[in-house]
Design a protein that fits this description.
355 residues, alpha+beta, Jelly Rolls, 8-stranded mixed beta sheet, 9 helices, 18% strand
């Protein structure tokens, strides 16, 4: 994945200077958001709840399928990821962001780079700054973690490797639950591998920190976006902030439930299901009482896999909505067109843009 993302980001660098978040009692104008900065900034909120699914439920396939179809996101329990590992990844994230700015900048992400410390790449699409900082891990974290913790980086590397292993297995399980609800079988996806365990897939881990903010109602932790993935699996600490958007209800806050994980459909799974599963818009808000940490596992296919609507989900009454393309090609489109990317590539269906 490092090669896949590096090629894309080298062609689409972001020019955003790194700086620490201001420690002030009022919000600087550069961090003050309004509807003119994001059309959905002040969209209505709802007290509806995201589906909570126990993966040990014998009806899990149906429940996951319904959640993917109606929401594009859901929370899960009994997912098989050890609680101790979740505690460890949260501890690692807290330790990382509590380092001094000087120390964190030693592992700063390059403008055209993939891994390291920095602001969200989507920041380049907005005029206002976001009240957050992040750290991206692609491949081995050894190189960057050695810069952050010269004497005890190996224990943190072990946590990341264990987390990746468990998340990969969980992502594959969720993929088959979701697609199984649509009647898709293992032999319908050749790139799942000989054991249908998606071992050839790629992923990134995104660690996020949303510090205490003096005026949270006028700020934004992470602006509304969809993920350029098949699936994203998120673990959040005990502070609320994640919100998902549905047209008929508005913004819905996803409260932290101890030991649970949040799953959302990404753009590529939306394409794979020919639009049946919506790729959900989501964002992060901040508060003035407690800082928030989240850890996202961003899961996608291998570089050379062509993603297109599955033949089983296409028929004379429902033609393909999207052309065939690789993750690398989609990332390049997303790097230019951001949240308009899905509609952009639909317009290429009858052209040879991605051939």
């Amino acid at each position: 994945m490092s090669s896949t993302l590096s090629d894309v980001f080298r062609s689409h660098p972001i020019h955003i200077p790194l700086s620490s978040l201001p420690d002030l009692k009022s919000l600087p104008d550069s961090y003050t958001w309004s509807p003119k900065d994001d059309l959905l900034f002040s969209a209505s909120a709802s007290d509806e709840s995201l589906p909570l699914i126990d993966l040990s439920d014998p009806h899990a396939t149906t429940l996951v399928g319904n959640a993917c179809t109606t929401w594009g996101a859901f929370q899960i329990t009994n997912h098989g990821v050890p609680s101790r590992l979740l505690d460890d990844i949260e501890l690692l994230t807290g330790d990382l962001f509590r380092l001094s700015v000087h120390q964190k900048l030693k592992a700063a992400r390059l403008e055209n780079g993939v891994s390291g410390y920095g602001v969200a790449r989507i920041a380049s699409f907005f005029n206002k700054k976001m009240w957050s900082e992040g750290f991206t891990v692609v491949g081995s974290p050894l190189h960057d973690f050695r810069k952050l913790w010269p004497s005890h980086h190996l224990e943190y590397c072990e946590i990341i490797e264990a987390y990746k292993e468990h998340m990969q297995k969980l992502a594959a399980k969720l993929m088959w639950l979701a697609l199984g609800s649509l009647g898709v079988e293992e032999n319908d996806i050749k790139w799942a591998g000989p054991n249908s365990d998606f071992q050839g897939t790629q992923a990134a881990i995104q660690l996020n920190h949303y510090p205490i903010c003096p005026e949270p109602e006028r700020s934004m932790g992470l602006a509304a976006h969809t993920d350029s993935t098949l699936l994203t699996i998120l673990y959040q600490n005990n502070t609320a902030g994640l919100q998902v958007f549905r047209d008929d209800v508005g913004w819905v806050t996803v409260p932290p439930i101890p030991g649970s994980l949040v799953v959302n459909v990404g753009d590529l799974l939306h394409i794979l299901t020919n639009g049946i599963f919506p790729s959900v818009l989501h964002r992060a808000r901040v508060n003035h009482v407690r800082s928030r940490f989240s850890m996202a596992y961003l899961w996608g296919p291998s570089s050379d896999v062509m993603i297109s609507p599955l033949p089983k989900l296409v028929d004379p009454l429902q033609s393909p909505l999207y052309p065939s393309l690789t993750w690398k090609q989609y990332l390049a489109t997303k790097a230019t067109h951001f949240n308009h990317s899905l509609s952009i590539i639909r317009n290429y269906l009858s052209s040879d843009q991605f051939s």
